[in-house]
Amino acid sequence: MESAILEQLQKLPESGQQEALRYIEALVMEYSRSGKNVASSPVKKRQAGMMKGTFVLPLADDFNAPLEDFQEYMA
After folding, report:
1. pTM given for the model
2. For the CA atoms of the chain, what is the radius of gyration?
3. CB distance 28 to 20 below 8 Å
4. Which residue in 27, 37, 50, 73 has its CB near the most CB atoms, within 10 A?
């Protein structure tokens, strides 16, 4: 099928090829909106721990200690 499409596409002038490309792009968008299968580039899976060590903040030694502002609520 692909070879037949390419063969016919090569017979068109460049302006016809551009029009065919726009039509194909519109078809792909329509198929993707309707949930029909459209061949696409594979989606990379996320890898656990990929960002490990990226967001390191200097934490105070008393980070987990209760705040003075909330002493009245904790009593």
Report:
1. 0.44
2. 29
3. no
4. 27
Domain edges within the chain: 1-38
CB 59, CB 66: distance < 8 Å: no
Q: What is the pLDDT of residues 3-59, one digit of tens each?
A: 998 999 999 999 999 999 999 999 888 888 877 666 655 667 888 888 887 877 788
What are the tokens at 55?
């967001």
How many whole angstroms separate alpha carbon 45 and alpha carbon 24? 28
Cβ–Cβ < 8 Å for 49, 38 = no
Q: Give the tokens for residue 52.
A: 């490990």
